[in-house]
Amino acid sequence: MSKKKRNRNKLNQNNSTPLNVNENIAIKHKIPEMEMEISKLEHEISSLQNKIAMLKIEKNNFNKKKQDAENKQKKLLKDKNQQQQHIDSLNKKAAEIREAIRKIDELKLATHTENSNSELLTILQQSNTMKTPNGENDDKTLAVAVRYKLNDLIFYTNDKNLKNKATSVGVKTS
């Protein structure tokens, strides 16, 4: 055997010698304290393990809520995009319809308009040059419309009062 191994064996033999009685009693008094300390530590470990388990469950719940919120956000964004596309297509159709209405109105004017004779042009020019109240000019214009109302005349104007007057004398307005 080597010297190192022999020295170790001697040390082990020295450490394994019985303790004296006082040391034995001191250790026996510490055992209940140590057992209580061990019990407290085991209780703390158990409590911490329970807290860890609860926190893991809570984390999983939060992750599920987060995932649900992200899915809802994606769905809302998709719905928003679809609605925007639908609105854009409706706006495009509305623009096409407005253009079609303009063309129809132009077509109506083109097919139902006839050249006026020189008397009508003279009356209209006089009404523009004369310094008369607006009501008299309206009456002159209406007189011309009444004269031609037998030809399915439709009177176009943006003047609401003039429209009302024309309707009251039997002229169709638009």
TrEMBL record:
Residues 63-81 have a biased composition (Basic and acidic residues). It comes from the Bacteria. Residues 1-20, 63-90 are annotated as: Disordered. InterPro entries: PIN-like_dom_sf. This is PIN domain-containing protein. It comes from Neisseria zalophi. The lineage of its organism: Bacteria, Pseudomonadati, Pseudomonadota, Betaproteobacteria, Neisseriales.
